[in-house]
Design goal:
single chain; 109 residues; alpha+beta; 3-stranded antiparallel β-sheet; 4 helices; 3 strands
C-alpha cells in the first residue's frame, strides 16, 4: 500500500482538506453537465423549481429522446451528493423519466 497524500479529486467530487475541516464540491462536474446539455450561458435562479409544479405523463408537447433525458436525470441525481437543495426538484423530474415530454425536459434544464 502506498500513501498518495491528501485526496484532491475523486469520482467527480473535488476535496479540499484543512487541519480542522474537509470541504467537498462538484463545481467541475457541474460545468461538465452544463456543457454537455448546452446550458453554459444559462442564468441562475433562486429556486430549483417552480412552486407547486405538477408534471403529467400525458402531455401535448413533443416527446424527447428518453436516453438523453435519463442521462440528464442521472447527472442531476449524482449532483445531489453535494447539492441537497436540488433533491426535491430532481425527484420530481425523475418520476416522469419513462415517458418524457419537452415540457419535462424544460423543467429539468
Amino acid at each position: 500500500m502506498t500513501d498518495l497524500g491528501l485526496m484532491h479529486y475523486c469520482l467527480g467530487v473535488e476535496v479540499w482538506q484543512e487541519p480542522d475541516h474537509i470541504f467537498i464540491s462538484q463545481s467541475k462536474y457541474t460545468g461538465e453537465i452544463l456543457k454537455a446539455f448546452g446550458m453554459t450561458e444559462c442564468k441562475s435562479v433562486g429556486t430549483p423549481m417552480e412552486v407547486e409544479l405538477k408534471l403529467s405523463t400525458e402531455d401535448t408537447s413533443p416527446l424527447v429522446d428518453e436516453r438523453l433525458y435519463w442521462k440528464l436525470v442521472g447527472s442531476l441525481i449524482y449532483l445531489c451528493n453535494t447539492r441537497p437543495d436540488i433533491s426535491f426538484a430532481v425527484g420530481v423530474v425523475s418520476r416522469v423519466s419513462k415517458k418524457s415530454w419537452e415540457n419535462h425536459w424544460n423543467v429539468g434544464m
